[in-house]
């Protein structure tokens, strides 16, 4: 079975269920879907054949907001008031993070994401060169941003500019088509207008994305209005940060006019329902306004300290259920739209293709177990995918035609688990000693 | 490995992690925990040894509100207005349900519950004699109630009384200590005061539980006040239906006085967060009031049409997150309390023991994969169990010392999946022809 992880060539997924029909999926040597349908096997001379019977194929999932290495903080502290949780638990531990920690934490995150069907993620954190090493080795796609925080201080801003420029140069020099750099202004409350404007201009100049937190809490909105006389989305827009290359995470407290603004600018809005619920932000993203505005609404898990998992199959259920509950509508965000958020909308946000199972798209494909209880009966694939299945039903994952997991085996899993666990333990030890 | 499913005798789970410590769990020939700790292996001469290394042990989970056979309707219809969903989709399909359907639907539900760590459930549906057959064969515990609905009609009431009496007699005659009967008055809006009073008296006479829906929607409250001049919990109480043997499901719209009443009566209140979110009931159970009142707050998934899974590990996360979000508190329902809801509180509700890993308790034990990403790092078992893991991390399940699943294998799984899928397809076919 190990052969399948190293083999290169054309591939056929034979007799797999897609939207209730049994089809073949043909993948060419460049990892693109050459054909899909009953006759797709004729389009290639397959070097590798994967048996698709007892499997349901869906597009690879895209996680549009993560702080991947925070896997090391999973379960370190929960159920506390936000300010206390950050100042007494999360920040003191993060102060002791090393580049090696970020490497192993990101490896663990990649492992967890692959195990639950994610093929691409949008990350913001520190020591991102080491995150790039992890992504490179694990074989999925990522857009990596250094978290730019100047707190209004000119000296700090100069250092953040340097760190951002260094990461972008590093990622470009790697020339790995799966890894992109982005600019990561943290938020309107941690970055000055000068910092935000620099980020916008640098992203434009480099032709890369902007990854920013937006309107996560009510306090962010009231503070922004008090300091700048305008709401956060308007403030970001005036600094040039809202473009079709922008991914804005959370978007809980946007008002209707801000939603229209995001739609007009073609922004991608990343919904993070589990994190928003756990941190009790007290308002769910206004999906109905964003959808009406034409904004690209996608899905993210946020970091592992505020979720505490990276399972997008689970996150789709949280999204579809939270929208219904919070906005009091039994019909809001139906299953098919939740799947689109986690696939085609995510792929559009990160520029990784159409995010669909169609000829000409990259072969980013997830095979779910059709014999798992969550897929019995199979009245409706979208419904089972969103409401019944979780990451445990994912059997095989392909990214650009390369097999990252097969029959739930990911190469190197034991070492990642061992080293990440050790890194987390050592990190807590260092923080205690300090 | 098949031996482990049929072997009888004393058992040792050797070197397993419980709350961060490595211990042994000794189980005697009657399936009770004989000892737990570093020296527990001395208490028995084990016939069977299960390797507990790389495993985290937690108490078996208890699902206190299900309609198990509705697994056959999983994904049949979703994302519709409630009245239309029920009248156009769910009820027409249910009208064609046979006893065989309930048997295979319940077998599928038992399989799904075992796979996700559930050892006992509280069920209300039709053809419950066939549900009892399924539970008997699958080896877990269940409390089974016939859903009593008289719609205020005397003739219908007489038929429901007959059906209830027949089920109770049937279950008692089986003499299976894992299976109990309960009386199942559906709700205040489907059962007359006379029907409710009969149910209360019959349950008292038989010494069995009452399983009822309570305050799921605002409409239920306003209709009850309009018809009877009192809120649903008060109405149920005046009919004698609130006792320490009562499990009341949902409890979303209880006011503070009703919560105090449930506490005074010693009622078990079953929280069903995923169902409540999916059906947009617009208010979360007031957990803080119920907790303060001393009511026994436990956890349930509801039926598969309104969830659509039976995974209590996932449901714990929904509960802990929904309470925080809906009641705007970052500290409400912390992980440890969520675990207690799904274990000790559930066991108390169904009378299946303490629901803890302690000497003298029934050996209802779940072994989670300690090497799964969701358990790395293991800073805190409760946190990982609630916030990070789902049913996919469950490796081994014991009920009264009997192994129901080992290394994710459940005996007979293939037949259940095949027959339940066929039953669901045939059911839809019959409904279409009609």
TrEMBL record, chains A, B:
This is 5'-deoxyadenosine deaminase. SAH is a product of SAM methyltransferases and is known to be a feedback inhibitor of these enzymes. As a result of this inhibition, organisms have evolved efficient enzymes to metabolize SAH via different pathways. The pathway found in methanogens differs from the canonical pathway, it uses the deamination of S-adenosyl-L-homocysteine to form S-inosyl-L-homocysteine for the regeneration of SAM from S-adenosyl-L-homocysteine. 5'-deoxyadenosine is a radical SAM enzyme reaction product which strongly inhibits radical SAM enzymes. Pathway: Amino-acid biosynthesis; S-adenosyl-L-methionine biosynthesis. Keywords: Hydrolase, Metal-binding, Zinc. One of its GO terms (biological process) is S-adenosylmethionine biosynthetic process. Homotetramer. Catalyzes the deamination of three SAM-derived enzymatic products, namely 5'-deoxyadenosine, S-adenosyl-L-homocysteine, and 5'-methylthioadenosine, to produce the inosine analogs. Can also deaminate adenosine. The preferred substrate for this enzyme is 5'-deoxyadenosine, but all these substrates are efficiently deaminated. Likely functions in a S-adenosyl-L-methionine (SAM) recycling pathway from S-adenosyl-L-homocysteine (SAH) produced from SAM-dependent methylation reactions. It comes from Methanoculleus bourgensis (strain ATCC 43281 / DSM 3045 / OCM 15 / MS2).
């Amino acid at each position: 079975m190990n052969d399948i992880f190293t083999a290169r060539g054309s591939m056929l997924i034979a007799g797999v269920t897609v939207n209730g029909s049994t089809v073949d999926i043909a993948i060419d040597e460049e990892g693109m879907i050459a054909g899909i349908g009953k006759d797709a096997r004729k389009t290639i001379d397959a070097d590798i054949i994967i048996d698709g019977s007892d499997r349901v194929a869906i597009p690879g999932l895209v996680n549009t907001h993560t702080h991947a290495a925070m896997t090391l903080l999973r379960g370190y502290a929960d159920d506390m008031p936000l300010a206390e949780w950050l100042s007494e638990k999360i920040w003191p531990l993060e102060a002791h993070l090393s580049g090696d920690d970020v490497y192993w934490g990101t490896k663990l995150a990649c492992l967890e994401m692959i195990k639950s069907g994610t093929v691409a993620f949008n990350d913001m954190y520190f020591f991102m060169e080491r995150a790039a090493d992890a992504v490179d080795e694990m074989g999925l796609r990522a857009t990596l941003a250094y978290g730019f925080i100047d707190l209004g201080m000119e000296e700090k801003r100069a250092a953040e500019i340097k760190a951002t420029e260094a990461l972008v140069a590093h990622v470009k020099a790697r020339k790995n088509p799966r890894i992109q750099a982005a600019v990561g202004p943290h938020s309107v409350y941690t970055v000055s207008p000068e910092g935000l404007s620099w980020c916008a201009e640098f992203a434009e100049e480099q032709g890369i994305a902007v990854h920013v937190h937006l309107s996560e809490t009510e306090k962010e909105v009231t503070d922004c209005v008090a300091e700048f006389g305008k709401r956060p989305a308007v403030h970001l827009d005036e600094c040039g940060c809202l473009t079709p290359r922008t991914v804005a995470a959370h978007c809980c407290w946007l008002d209707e006019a801000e939603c229209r603004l995001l739609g007009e600018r073609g922004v991608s809005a990343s919904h993070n329902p589990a994190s928003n619920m756990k941190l009790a932000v007290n308002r769910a993203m206004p999906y109905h306004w964003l959808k009406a505005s034409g904004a690209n609404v996608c899905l993210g898990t946020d970091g592992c300290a505020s979720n505490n998992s990276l399972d997008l199959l689970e996150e789709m259920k949280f999204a579809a259920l939270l929208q219904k509950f919070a906005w009091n509508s039994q019909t809001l965000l139906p299953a098919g739209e939740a799947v689109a958020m986690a696939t085609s909308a995510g792929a559009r946000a990160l520029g990784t293709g159409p995010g669909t199972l169609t000829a000409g798209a990259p072969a980013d494909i997830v095979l779910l177990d059709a014999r798992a209880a969550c897929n019995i009966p199979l009245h409706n694939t979208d419904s089972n995918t969103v409401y019944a299945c979780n990451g445990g039903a994912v059997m095989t994952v392909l990214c650009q035609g390369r097999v990252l997991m097969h029959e739930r085996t990911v190469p190197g899993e034991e070492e990642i688990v061992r080293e990440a666990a050790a890194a987390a333990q050592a990190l807590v030890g260092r923080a205690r000693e300090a």
